[in-house]
Amino acid sequence: MSPSPHGTQETTPSLALWRSNRVIGLFPELLGVGGVQEAGRQIARALDAITHRHGWEVQILSLNDARGEHQLPACDFPVRFYGFGRRKTSFVLSMMRQALSLDTYKLRVVLAAHPNLAPPASFIKCFSRSVKTIVMTHGVEVWSRLSLARRTSLSHADLVLAPSQDTAEKLTSVQGIPIEKIRKLLWPLNPEFLRLADSPAGLRLPPGFPQGSIVLTVGRWAKSERYKGLDDLIKATAELRSSLADLQLVVVGGGDDLARHRKLATDAGIADSVHFLEHLSREELAACYANADVFALPSTGEGFGLVFLEAMAFAKPIVAASCGGTMEVVEHGANGLLIPPHNYQSLADALNKLLRDDSLRTKLGRGGAEMVRRKHRFRDFELGLDQILEEVAGLHSSRARL
Fold first, then answer.
1. Could you tell me what percent of the chain has a pLDDT over 90?
2. pTM of the entire structure?
3. Which sequence spans correspond to the domains of the chain?
4. What does the alpha-carbon distance between residue 380 and residue 226 come to, in Å, rounded to a whole number?
5. For the CA atoms of the chain, what is the radius of gyration?
6. Could you give the angle at which helices 230-240 and 258-267 cross, rounded to 10 degrees?
7. Strand, coil or helix: 82
8. By the 8 A CB rule, do 254 and 278 touch?
């Protein structure tokens, strides 16, 4: 076997089988902020490594990123992709050219990294029987019944991937996808973020980060995503301030609902204790995790929750709602505390318990740090995706079946 520039080994026996194959990755956005975008970056990174190792060709296309060629940030090796500046027609036409050109390709796989991109992936199969399609799901977007067009396109995929058992079950019960088409693939922690967590001493905090007992939350605070639970966090902070005078809530992330949240904090009389930090670099975000006492996100709409992995990497105990895919990441009493959904009193009680108990915080934090390094390594995600691609190619049956 010979070494690869991506830090892996070339598997010579299977290489001949994979020659003359092409993979096209379709993404909604790769340079933006949010869980879907971060998951997309890890998918693109894995695709690039897998295709290089097997000697395939790969094309990575992003609908909503600025038009032109780009490169993923913070990668050990260049991962290049092309953005289409929200030009849907150009995006679809380019996808078709990539998928249908060069008849010498033995197999063409189109991987749609979001259910919204299932229709163009399905459309391409009308023109070529050799095209195989995979659609990746994330969570809340498949919890309610999709439109007929998207549901039909999803059902036409060769495989549909889910990051949690909960999302997989929603695909079957809500979208009607046959269970034999569904594979579970856990999202990984970004390797760069793990490196920052392993060497936190040099991280510099962003301006405006307070001192005191710090509860940190991270998210995209949009009107369409009020299920994240920031309202309840602000209420819980207001209740706890009477007994925890140095309590500070740090809210990281942007969104079109921030003005309303700032008003909630002001109306509750705790504007000086709620700190909104936007446009942070990866290193500044990592510093926020490193200097927090507790991470809290009482969201009721998580299909997985990558921010939980980030907090766990820094050995921070978690408070989360016992709902959706969260329960497969946060284990009550092992790496955090789970509370009933939409219950700010239980949220306040859990925060109070953790902030007053150093030993419990340490225990849960250590549990999370061990768990994320054991279950959510990027290398395992890459190998799992590789196995799924091999299954689509018909090389063997996947061991990743539900």
1. 79
2. 0.89
3. 12-188+377-393, 191-375
4. 32
5. 22
6. 20
7. strand
8. yes
